[in-house]
Records
---
Amino acid sequence: MAINFDKALGVHEQALLLRQKRNEVLAANIANADTPGYKAQDIDFRTALSNSAAAGDQAMLALKVTSAGHQHRADGSADALSASLKYRQPYQPSLDGNTVEAHIEQAEFADNAMRYQATLSFLGSRLSGLKSILQGGR
């Protein structure tokens, strides 16, 4: 009997990939906290994950390629996550037009990193269970 990893891992695989992309976006925000005119962005996690789960593939998790120097997916395509990437509305906008609020970005990054680790731990235990089944429950 074949094991269907999509069913075995469920939505957690897409969640892990989406959390990775969100970490990248939040890290870019933190790195540009002092860049005049930089607009902070974030991923609407629930929308992106539900779109990804509904699509049934990981095409929604790839970042938009706007330059020939950007990386492509392994299959050579470059579909966009841009539908779920939104600009963050600042509580206190700065005079130079930068919308990054470092304390908020750091808190969101820490929360997302914790959730990434939790998802990774869950997937690890799920795979460990599958390994145990395949080995005959030794």
---
Amino acid sequence: MLTYQDQTFINFRQFTSGDHARRWVDIKRFGLSRPDADVTHLLTELIGQEQYRDDYAGGGVEVNGLRHGPYWLRNVSPAAYVRVDEASANAILRDWAAQFGPLPVALSARLEHEVHALVAGATERYQLKDLGYEAFHDWGGVHNDFHELVVIDRPAKALSLLVAADD
């Protein structure tokens, strides 16, 4: 039902230095063959995807991986996601992006075009909850910040996994 399409990686280092430079946004896009499927089914499919097996710490996707971000994959389920509205999703991302001060104009423009437009165009948005330290994998505390959103655009038959974090 979900078909991996492509990925966009926005590395803050290309735009700035200092505290901002250790951060990035990764967007993985999937096509929906059944856009009418319920969200639990869609999230289950996403979690089962090979592209979801990414520790986001430089190792990339591992076909038989056991990690997702800072968590053991076994600790992530559809119940780990909470629905959020557009304003809340954008606030999470904007607060995270600007935590060390104003962003360079070019970086702000790229985030508006690639990230915030995606959030705005979605019909549904879900945030991965903080699963707590006990859900971390063996070196899961490597990220200071890890924010994950799943945005679904049913008319466009698209689902995107959006991760904003640091390294």
---
Amino acid sequence: MDSALRSGDCDSVGIARPTVIAIDAAASILDGRTATLTTHELRVGMRRLLGRLTNLKALDGFLNISWHTDQMHRLARGQQANLDQGALSTAVAMVRRNGRVSFGAKRGLR
């Protein structure tokens, strides 16, 4: 992250996703306890079948944004992140939260 900032390749670095898993992520980077942060990424199952029907990269992206949103809501309620929450549970939560528009086309995907 430091080299990317120093080189001018980027102006800022976001660490929201790793912070869902390790709430002290920023402190551990700044005080040198760790050089890398890990994230939790979902990949939808039945890829061969679903790949014929939809853009898997976009679907995985929707699910990952929703999974991290769910975990941030848990943290806000004083709970731990649920690392066992799978793709199906995440999809159900996304539809409950956003309705049918959850699976509609987004910017740049039309």
---
Amino acid sequence: MDRAEGRALRVEVAYSPRGRAVDLSEVVLAEGSTALQALRASGLLDRHPEIDLAVLRVGVWGRLCPTDELLREGDRVEVYRPLTVDPKEARRLRYRRQRSRLSGTR
């Protein structure tokens, strides 16, 4: 970016299309850029056509925000997919599996 465009911001854009898979990109944007501009600049929306921003939520560092939110240096824009399992239930299932593995080895 040259000085006429203002200062540059480095931000990350993250999306997890499924468990244990993360699409992470770093983009450089002009100061005053929005979360939506970061999503577009990252190419994330092209790589994942299943992302519908009218349905999925967007956030910065785990905090929900509108797509027109202004970004700051070092922000991480995240696209959140719907949960398939309640987090409390997932913890219970992991605990039960771990407990059964441990009891089977004794």
